[in-house]
Amino acid sequence: MQAMTNENDLLRFFLNHKENKILKWRHYFDVYDRYFSKYRGLPVRILEIGVFDGGSLHMWRDYFGTDAQIFGIDILPECKKLEDDGFHISIGSQTDRSFLRAFLASTEPFDIILDDGGHTMRQQITTFQELYKHVKPDGLYLCEDMHTSYWSKYGGGIRRPGTFMEYSKKMVDQLNAWHSEQSRFHVDQITKTTYSVHYYDSIVVFEKRLMNPPEKMETGEYSIVDYDRMTNRSLGQRIQGRLYMMASQVLRLLHLPE
């Protein structure tokens, strides 16, 4: 990761900002810029959970541009005042599934969803379960301040079951579920719609993409290693493999799909 300088426009805004309060860890700005830069100047739809004083909403507008559609959810009624600044604000609890579902039913999917809400385990897990499916197929979902997964007052603890950190680690397994040999570990919507999961200090970034089963590819005609012997394949398996390779070669020569 590149060292942060004032050339990071998000950090520049933060350092020069004098109005509505913003609270961020310094290293977050580089993570934001790494994933958000491709949306600059576009009519991006971004939802931030946890509005508070609204300073970050102004930061997003400065960074993404005036075409950005910026939404916020907060439990504090005072945040509704930020609609006077052109933001879309909804008041409700991020643990209230009925509220979240009603909100989603009233709006289109988002390019970016950022959970900077209350940071308890229940809040983070509930929000992910309800909102992740409402991120566009090529969008991003971020949960920040995940260090609360290690703080007891938030329900955390190192490797404690039920923390968002432990919950999110399961998503890494789901990325690889295509290769499972166990019925209880199977392909699900996370597998089918998630391209990658990236961890940083206190932040996890989910990159969405519609995924197909992985395609194993092979090229070249000769091998100096007896892979059949190394892998203990049966004679039938060896013959089947050889026939498949021969058929593939013929199809390539004829320019036909395999």
Structure, briefly:
The protein has 258 residues and is of the alpha/beta class. Helix content is 34%, strand content 17%.
What does this structure look like?
By secondary structure, the chain is of the alpha/beta class. It folds into two domains: 9-208, Rossmann fold (3-Layer(aba) Sandwich), CATH 3.40.50; 218-258. 34% of the residues lie in helices and 17% in strands. It is built from nine helices and seven strands; from the N terminus they run H-H-E-H-E-E-H-E-H-E-H-H-E-E-H-H. It has a seven-stranded mixed sheet, sandwiched between helices. Helix 1 (9-16) packs across helix 3 (55-64) and helix 4 (97-105) runs parallel beside helix 5. The two termini are 41 Å apart.
Name the CATH architecture of the largest domain: 3-Layer(aba) Sandwich
Question: What is the molecular shape?
Answer: elongated
Order of helices and strands: HHEHEEHEHEHHEEHH
Q: How do the strands line up in the largest sheet? A: 3-2-1-4-5-7-6
Uncertain ranges? 1-5
Radius of gyration: 23 Å
Q: What structural class do helix, strand and pairing data support?
A: alpha/beta
